[in-house]
């Protein structure tokens, strides 16, 4: 029997209990039967919190409630307070919230004995509720919603939207209207069907507050020069595309800290990358690189460089000497041998940093990093 059916029967018998669920600075009040189990409670909480049931943990008196346990068995009574904790990656939706779920949850927030309240709340549409939630949280989560275009409700939210997640859909284009989201900080467009010519880069370039742009798993063959206009960008994720090079304008991103461009066809890295003075991590693994620009040595804040699965036979001569923060270097499946690396100035200092970091990982019982390791018997970088 579903939770709302149990609640209706319990209401008729006068056995409804009201509980208060705290989440994200808000308190949600629900009235339901004590015979409902915690799994049903989670289902009712989804449209209120936009947290998937499998991502919910309900805490009562310091204990995590099991899904199969009834509210009665865990001693939830009228007025009990429960805390909801959302698991990372399972909040803010995984597909559209169903209209009937919205209606049921909205009804439960009202006096369960008031039929008129039930009718009024049932008339609330999913579009209005969804848009209101986006405006309240600043997060529009639309991953895995089978979308072909960006919904109009997104544009109507305007400056309220700070995070827009459109990952894992069938979206083929990003219109110029994107520039109306002037407060947008993070834009996730992973795993769609986007090509560079169907993206309004002019619109994107006007998002001066954008700090994260994620375009992994699309059909990008080039990265337009307009990317250099995203002056606030701190993370750029463009892995698993068809890119063959990185534009010179990338060097204008002096706040960029993370560049992930693995699994492309990149054979040339612009010398302008040396102007990205804030870079901490670069991932160029699984590309077609045979050499790297000497300007990499200018990246004094660089800590991690991933270069596995490339055709590299050398590294910039100043890399170890100038990049004094570098402690992670992944050279697996390249042509670089330890004999070559030891000849590069600054190798000894880098090797000491690398070993120290590895030892710290062991001390904290973290497994091996899986990156560059000299090895006892192998003359190649691991």
UniProtKB/TrEMBL annotation:
Name the record gives this protein: LRR repeats and ubiquitin-like domain-containing protein
Taxonomic source organism: Apostasia shenzhenica
PROSITE patterns, per database record: LRR, UBIQUITIN_2
Organism lineage: Eukaryota, Viridiplantae, Streptophyta, Embryophyta, Tracheophyta
Recorded family membership: Belongs to the SHOC2 family.
Keywords: Leucine-rich repeat, Repeat, Transferase
GO CC annotation: cytoplasm
EC number: 2.7.11.1
Xref: Pfam families: LRR_8, ubiquitin
Residue ranges occupied by any Ubiquitin-like domain in the UniProt entry: 17-88
Record GO terms (molecular function): protein serine/threonine kinase activity
General function of this protein: Leucine-rich repeat protein that likely mediates protein interactions, possibly in the context of signal transduction.
Keyword Ribonucleoprotein annotated: no
Regions that span the bilayer: none
């Amino acid at each position: 029997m579903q939770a709302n059916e149990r609640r209706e029967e319990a209401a008729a018998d006068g056995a409804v209990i009201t509980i208060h669920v705290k989440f994200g600075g808000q308190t949600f009040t629900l009235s339901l039967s004590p015979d409902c189990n915690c799994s049903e409670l989670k289902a009712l909480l989804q449209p209120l919190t936009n947290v998937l049931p499998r991502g919910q943990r309900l805490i009562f008196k310091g204990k995590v409630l099991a899904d199969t346990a009834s509210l009665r068995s865990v001693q939830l009574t009228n007025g009990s307070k429960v805390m909801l904790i959302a698991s990372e990656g399972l909040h803010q939706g995984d597909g559209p919230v169903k209209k009937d779920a919205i209606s049921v949850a909205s009804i439960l927030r009202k006096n369960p004995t008031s039929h008129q309240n039930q009718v009024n709340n049932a008339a609330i549409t999913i579009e209005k509720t969804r848009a209101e939630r986006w405006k309240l949280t600043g997060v529009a989560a639309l991953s895995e919603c089978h979308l072909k275009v960006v919904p109009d409700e997104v544009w109507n939210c305007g400056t309220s939207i700070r995070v827009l997640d459109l990952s894992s859909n069938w979206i083929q284009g990003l219109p110029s209207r994107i520039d109306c989201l002037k407060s947008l900080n993070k834009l996730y467009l992973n795993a769609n069907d986007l090509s560079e010519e169907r993206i309004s880069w002019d619109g994107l370039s006007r998002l001066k507050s954008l700090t994260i742009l994620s375009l992994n798993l699309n059909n990008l063959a080039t990265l337009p020069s307009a990317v250099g206009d995203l002056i606030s960008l701190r993370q750029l994720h463009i892995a698993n595309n068809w890119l063959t090079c990185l534009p010179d304008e990338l060097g204008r991103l002096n706040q960029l800290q993370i560049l992930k461009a693995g699994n492309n066809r990149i054979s040339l890295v612009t010398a302008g990358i040396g102007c990205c003075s804030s870079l901490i991590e670069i991932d160029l693994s699984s590309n077609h690189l045979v050499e790297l620009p000497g300007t990499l040595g200018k990246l004094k804040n660089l800590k991690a460089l991933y270069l596995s699965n490339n055709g590299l036979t050398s590294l910039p001569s100043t890399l170890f000497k100038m990049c004094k923060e570098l402690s992670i270097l992944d050279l697996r499946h390249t042509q670089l041998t330890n004999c070559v690396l030891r000849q590069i100035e600054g190798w000894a200092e880098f090797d000491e940093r690398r070993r120290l970091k590895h030892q710290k990982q062991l001390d904290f019982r973290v497994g091996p990093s899986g990156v560059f390791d000299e090895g006892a018997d192998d003359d190649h970088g691991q």
